[in-house]
């Protein structure tokens, strides 16, 4: 038994998160509940001979005897394709994503993972976009990044590709969330675009292990991450049966804003946007329509320089004031949305997200669907 404890202590957090990921047929929220109850490392060293947890024999076996060889191969393959593993408790894991019902336990990331903690707007739409749709995706994305917002999309044909290209043209941040392993690019014609994203300080992420090939059932899972990362989702063009409406539906379930650009009633690629507007999505004509709705902090280059110069002093101030007003008092014992915390605390959203993460690690608040709960 002592030998097993020593071996366990040598394993990384990423290995344990992967082991948790591979417990079969157990919902993510139930896995996170096990971690909350026992702790991640301790979970895999407990004696589960009793059946008090209502787990199946296969699930108990996956906890008592994880396939470490498989896990180590995945880590090796991830390093081989130039990606990093980000576990649920990693400081780079986005707070926004923790708010959704089924957040991925592990993210694989290529590029600038700091983008995960920035304010994001998802820009999505039809693969068979019109020329106007592609132009709108490009221009809106370019304007968003010039206002300090990161543009998130899915690296797909059509709207997604032009959203990424617009963000690159605006010399801002862009995140591509993909439905394959990061050892491949899908569609293959976007290999240059993927390379451009990485080379220009962007990021490509996936919850799927290296070697995962594109399958129809994986794209809706990918879409929930696109919306989950973002403050809101802009649908540029979409048919009624478009996968972009799945992303919009995920956004609604995750309490995110949904925006839609109208087009001609003769345009079949606009039918989905018109339907969303009828359902209550905000009609968008310009970038300001988005920014005013989600109240995203706009950071100019000057602001970024000032923040960098003051970061040392700010970090000390954050640490000293972390458990004092106004932030902690801005989180209620009922579900408190992020925008309510920002409004109450009068702090910039990037500061709020950073401090909430620290408070969560200290056990003073808990991320739940729709926002945060105070736990102390």
Largest beta-sheet details: 9 strands, mixed
Q: Considering DSSP H and I runs of 4 or more, what fraction of the residues is helical?
A: 40-55%
Please report the number of helical segments: 18
Number of domains: 3
Strand content: 5-15%
- What is the radius of gyration computed over CA atoms, rounded to a whole number of angstroms? 21 Å
CATH architecture of the largest domain: 3-Layer(aba) Sandwich
Describe the protein.
- The chain is of the alpha/beta class.
- The protein contains 18 helices and eleven strands.
- The protein folds into three domains: 2-66, no CATH class; 95-294, Rossmann fold; 302-374, Arc Repressor Mutant, subunit A (Orthogonal Bundle).
- The protein has a nine-stranded mixed beta sheet with strand order 1-2-6-5-4-3-7-8-9, with helices on both faces. The protein has a two-stranded antiparallel sheet with strand order 10-11.
- α11 (218-229) packs across α12 (244-253).
- It is globular.
- The protein starts with a helix and ends with a strand.
- Mean pLDDT is 87; it is low at 1-7 and 297-325.
């Amino acid at each position: 038994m002592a030998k097993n404890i020593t071996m366990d202590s040598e394993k990384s957090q990423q290995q344990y998160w992967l082991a948790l990921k591979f417990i079969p047929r157990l919902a993510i929220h139930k896995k996170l509940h096990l971690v909350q109850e026992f702790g991640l490392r301790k979970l895999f060293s407990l004696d589960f001979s009793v059946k008090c947890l209502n787990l199946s024999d296969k699930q108990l076996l996956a906890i008592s005897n994880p396939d470490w060889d498989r896990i180590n191969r995945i880590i090796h393959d991830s390093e081989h394709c130039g990606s990093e593993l980000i576990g649920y408790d990693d400081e780079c894991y986005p707070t926004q994503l923790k708010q959704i019902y089924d957040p991925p336990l592990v993210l694989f990331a290529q590029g600038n993972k700091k983008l995960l903690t920035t304010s994001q707007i998802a820009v999505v739409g039809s693969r068979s976009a019109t020329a106007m749709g592609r132009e709108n995706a490009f221009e809106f994305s370019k304007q968003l990044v010039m206002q300090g917002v990161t543009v998130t999309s899915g690296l797909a044909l059509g709207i997604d590709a032009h959203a990424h290209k617009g963000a690159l043209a605006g010399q801002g941040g862009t995140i591509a969330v993909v439905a394959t392993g990061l050892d491949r690019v899908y569609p293959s014609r976007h290999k240059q675009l993927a390379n451009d994203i990485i080379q220009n300080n962007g990021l490509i992420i996936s919850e799927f292990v290296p070697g995962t090939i594109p399958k129809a059932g994986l794209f809706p899972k990918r879409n929930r991450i696109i919306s989950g990362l973002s403050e809101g989702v802009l649908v540029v063009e979409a048919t009624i049966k478009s996968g972009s409406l799945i992303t919009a539906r995920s956004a609604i379930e995750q309490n995110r804003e949904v925006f839609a650009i109208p087009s001609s009633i003769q345009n079949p690629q606009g039918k989905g946007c018109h339907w969303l507007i009828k359902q209550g999505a905000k009609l968008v004509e310009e970038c300001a329509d988005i920014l005013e709705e989600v109240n995203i902090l706009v950071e100019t280059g000057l602001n970024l320089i000032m923040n960098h110069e003051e970061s040392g002093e700010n970090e000390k101030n954050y640490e000293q004031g972390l458990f004092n007003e106004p932030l902690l008092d801005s989180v209620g014992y009922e579900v408190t949305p992020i925008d309510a915390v920002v409004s109450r605390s009068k702090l910039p959203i990037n500061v709020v997200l950073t401090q909430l993460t620290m408070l969560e690690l200290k056990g003073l608040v808990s991320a739940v669907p729709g926002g945060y709960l105070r736990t102390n």
